[in-house]
Amino acid sequence: MISDEFNSKVWVYFETNLKPRTRKEYWKIVNDFDKEVGHDPLTLTSKDAAKYYKYLINKMENNRISYSTGVMRLSVIRSVCNFIEYYTTNHGNKYVNYFKDYSIPEPDKLINEEDIPNSLEINNILETIKEYNDDKAFLIFSLAVKCALTNSEICKLNMEYIALDKSSDTLCINYPPNSRNNIARTIKVPDDVARLLDKYIYDNDIKEGPIFINRRKTRMKLRDSERLIEKYCKICLEKKTIRNKYTLQSLRHAGMSYMLAGGAPKDAVANYAGITGRWMTRYERILSSSTYNQAVNYSIIKIS
């Protein structure tokens, strides 16, 4: 049951600021959460978030709601909890929005060749970035291509996650377990990208906290990083050095395709990329195409 405290402290904000149709949809989703979890989101535990997330996934898997509806519902409950976190923190109390760690996976579909850049296009994008002396963009794109980091992982990257594996003298990124699947992830950073990362940290005097920040000096958001790829893809499209406008996800897909084309086992690539093996079927069409049916060759991609 929705509490009076939720109505007076939280819902009054949405009631005042949302248009009637949007407000009705938000209220429906808050009630949906309340019905499934047993209380409104004014109190939220990691178990509550996990329960509602699994509830949405189950509905999608059983075709009771569409993929877009599932994404929308998760986005709405995350927004509501974002406001609660902001409100509660400003009043001197603690509240953790556990929904920040959750996202609805993309539909399991095959990826078309035109959806991802080939090695020449990747190199053309990186060369264009170098022309503009944008070290931040260069490092971000390198992490997506050669470390298979997601946009979210790039934005969440903290100084505290970076460590040197003394046994192999290799730089590693250690992501702690998240509340969604409680799985930690360790990525061994290739030497060329490790040098870039080390230089970026030194040049920007980063001692702790986020590696990438925006113009407001706060942690870079997903949209901030996507704007970077949009910027340089637009320049490359004007120069006709790439075929399509790509995203950071496109670069990640390309990197994983090259790993697979080079003979890396599917399970090893899946583990490195932090996904389950069943998602690897999405790359089958790419690997049979003329672009990726040869051994991996990163030599054309100049990361330095």
List its salient traits.
single chain; 304 residues; mainly alpha; hpI Integrase, Chain A; 2 domains; three-stranded antiparallel β-sheet; 12 helices; 3 strands; globular; disordered C terminus
Model description:
With 304 residues, the protein is mainly α. It folds into 2 domains: 4-101; 113-287, hpI Integrase, Chain A (Orthogonal Bundle), CATH 1.10.443. Helices cover 53% and strands 5% of the residues. The chain has helices spanning 4-17, 20-37, 46-61, 67-90, 119-131, 135-146, 151-156, 191-203, 222-239, 248-261, 266-273, 284-287, and strands spanning 162-165, 170-175, 185-188. A hairpin with a 4-residue loop joins strand 1 (162-165) and strand 2. Helix 6 crosses helix 10 (248-261). The protein is globular and about 55 Å long. It starts with a helix and ends in a 17-residue tail after the last helix. Residues 290-304 have low confidence and may be disordered.
